[in-house]
Specification:
The protein has 5 helices and no strands. It is mainly alpha-helical. The longest helix is centred in the C-terminal third of the chain and has 25 residues. The mean pLDDT is 93.
């Protein structure tokens, strides 16, 4: 299994949407059309187009497909999507989140 590295830190630049990685890196590297890639992923071409246009996110089901297709892990694709979504949510809710008190809870699972 390939090792994955997580880079963290605050940035003013939004994380890259996983669809942009598919569009700019994966499909060109594989020399595949959207139609061919969608067929291999067993999804509609429009679904792949929406992800690549950053109009739709990567779901757990899609992460499983992409991981098999790219030879990596579903968690990689989900983390890419999560980082993208969290960055925009933090920007959108910054003022409201600042008004919520912090309580320290010791959870033992």
């Amino acid at each position: 299994m390939k090792e994955e590295f997580v880079i963290s830190g605050k940035t003013n630049r939004p994380p890259t949407h996983p669809g942009a990685i598919l569009k700019e890196d994966v499909l060109p590297e594989l020399k595949l059309s959207v139609t061919k890639a969608a067929k291999e992923l067993h999804i509609a071409r429009q679904t792949l187009h929406r992800i690549m246009a950053e109009e739709a996110g990567v779901t757990p089901e899609m992460a499983l497909r992409l991981a098999k297709f790219c030879g990596n892990t579903p968690s990689l694709w989900l983390r890419l999507q999560q980082n993208y979504d969290l960055w925009f949510a933090q920007k959108r809710l910054k003022a409201e989140i600042a008004t919520i008190p912090t309580h320290h809870v010791d959870l033992h699972w």
